[in-house]
Amino acid sequence: MRNAVRHGVTLALFATSLCISAGVSGSERLDHLEFADRLNLAPVTYRALSTLDVASRKALYRKLPAPLQGQLWMTHFKEFLQSHPELTLTQRSVLYEAIGLITARQESDMLDGPISELRQRSLTAFSTADISIFGTLGPNVPVAATADTDAVLARLRSAYPSGVSLMIPECNCSASSNFCDTVTNPFPECENTGCSRSDVGCGWLWLQACNGICGGWI
């Protein structure tokens, strides 16, 4: 079983390596990602991102193409559903609604209304401890890295470099949907301050703008 998993990782990395070394265009790279997904690229990438702290995870996530971002959230919710058989029908319904919202993102950017509705239903159905499932892709606390996850991260960083000035930190939270928490941030407030902003990557399902820093300048 372990050899099969490692073989799948090798195939996905090999496909990525071919794409990068050939210098293919963005559309061709997207075709590659759709092909590589059949080799379980999304679960492999999800595990690799889970080894990073949340801020670093977001920074790399924002560079990935939207289809892969959506697949990562699908993996996220699938694992949550599988590991929580005690979920009520209402809670499962909210999770399926979130999955539907991720799918709808491919067709429309007008998601403020649906995000607001999901927020209200989520806050009613889930406890404070579990609500972070909608605002953090992967675990709040990073998991241990392996040689395989390090290799995946290296490939992703090579394919999608940050391009952000080291003098200006990237925004890592949404001022309108604060998901800063005491587990990963000593000061759990999203402060709208001078950071490099992005249109998506924070808030609910990371579909909202990143326009602040958790704890401000800490």
What brief labels describe this structure?
single chain; 4 strands; disordered N terminus; globular; mainly alpha; 218 residues
What would you say this structure looks like, in words?
The protein is mostly helical. The chain has one domain (2-159). Helices cover 50% and strands 6% of the residues. The strands form 2 sheets. Strands 1-4 form a two-stranded antiparallel sheet. The protein has a two-stranded antiparallel ribbon with strand order 2-3. Helix 1 packs antiparallel against helix 2 and helix 1 (2-21) packs parallel to helix 8 (147-159). It is globular, with a radius of gyration of 17 Å. It starts with a helix and ends with a strand. Residues 1-39 have low confidence and may be disordered.
Instruction: Provide the low-confidence segments as ranges.
Output: 1-39
The biggest beta sheet is recorded as: 2 strands, antiparallel
Total number of beta strands: 4
Alpha carbon gyration radius: 17 Å
* Number of individual domains: 1
Distance between the termini: 44 Å
Helical fraction: 40-55%
Shape, principal axes of CA atoms: globular
What is the subunit arrangement here? single chain
Sheet/helix structural class: mainly alpha
Give me the side-by-side strand order of the main sheet.
1-4
- Written as H for each helix and E for each strand, in order along the chain, the element string is HHHHHHHHEEEE
